[in-house]
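Whether sequence alone determines local backbone shape is best considered at the level of individual chains. When preparing material for the folding task, we compiled for one chain both its residues and its backbone structure tokens. No coordinates are needed to read the tokens, only the vocabulary itself. For completeness, the protein is quoted in full, as a sequence line and a line of structure tokens:
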Amino acid sequence: MNSMPVAVNRKRLPKRKQGVFYTPTELFDKYIYPEISDILWDYTWVDLFCGRGDLIIPLLLHIECQERTAFFADHIRCFDVSPMALKELAKRLREIGITDEDLIKKNLIQTDTLIRFPEFEHDFPLFHITNPPYLYKGFIPKTKETSELLRYFRGEREPLQDLYQVALFNDVKAGLQRMIYVIPANFLYGDAVSNYIRGIVLKHYRLRKVVVFERKIFQDTDINVCICSFVRKSVPDERPQVISAIKVTWQGEKIRAYVLSKKYKWRAGSEFYEIVSKMRARQPLNVKLYLTRKDIERHPGDYEVTVLDVNNYKPIKIHVSKALAERIRKNILFLKTLDTGSIEGRAGLYRHRDVFGVEGLLVTRAFTYRTHPIQVFFEDDIEPEEQIFVEMWFNSLLEILRARLDSDFMTTYRQTTRHYTRKYLGLKQAILIMETCPLKDLRPEIRAWIKDSIRKGDHEAVKRWIQEIINEKVSEISGELLKGNNYNTQTTISDFLSNTRRLISGKDYTFT
């Protein structure tokens, strides 16, 4: 098949700007081959983004030398937009004993498979095994070189958010029965960025196996990825799926169990939303996030306030009305959404006077950024000691949920190290946690005891009281969720149990 004209510009883009990252061979041998070893001769194995063949060459190496050419002829089809990548793959095929040039030319096809699923002859059912390009839609318009890639998101694909999602969407439309994808872990854990594609894929496919990597896999990027094995359902449905996943970190491997449901947009780690919704206070706190330049312009005055310019991390002095000055000063907390690489730098609520030595935090540019420190404004009249109680409650609940749910409700942020996996707490999640704080529900005598204890500096007594309440409540809710998971998905649950037994057989896994 000839190269399509629309592919010309993409071929010339640097690999990193295409979102192309080559797959380590050991990843295939350890986590993919055991899944397919018994069915190699039952399918035509196709890789629509084959690159140098990092998923195809390891597969062929598991075929006996004398049978390799015949297997390649009948069971392998490779596609890529890059002629250089296909040239490298052809060279590797010759090195492992496949030397029929006509056959290589026939089975290695240059075309742009992001445009559409290609048509080609095959004698066996298709099994797509691939590591597609990853490139977030929000990044694409930022450079002239990548902006043309927006054409992949036209028409019915406009709601998609990444190139890998375009690949998945094409496979769903083509009706493939089996797929194994190496894709960003945000497919499982992402919120707005992945809700749409999960809804499409998981309506038609069951996740048979998942491996999540919270460690660096690719040489050229720090993106955390997962391996997802998909099996097409006989009839589309939207019932919850119970899945088991191997989680690979710098410290080793463990198994996590997830319930993916439409109620929570099929997102892994949805237990978080179940817990915080059941813990929501009867009278939840009403909060507003961010102090912006527009707030300053709307409230001019002569009252001087020292704030941190969060866009430049420099203290500056602003002049505002008396009312706004008082509002800034009396709200003493800020939200830190991003872990900074150590236990001491975890996401949570902190006091900006203690951390930055300022009275408030100001966004000086037009756009707010979720990873900057964000001042929290309470719409209720809450005294400083009570705000410290909110801080204690928020951080205690967040840490308990991180431990119980292995931080799965948070997004892994950039590079992880051998000692620590950095996580990002979404603003929606932060608000939900704040809304669990029962400050306004407390009896007056309890509220008075809290304020008196904090004024006297006896923070530990308040922390112990908070942790006892939270631990008891979270344990109670978790028990209810386990009893209440009557999802009428017996086939899925049976597969989950058998997969778990198989995964942990003979291995020293931690089951969480």
Q: What stands out?
A: Residues 1-21, 484-512 have pLDDT under 50 and may be disordered. The two ends are 49 Å apart (CA to CA). The first helix runs from residue 8 to 12. DSSP finds 20 helices and 19 strands in the chain.
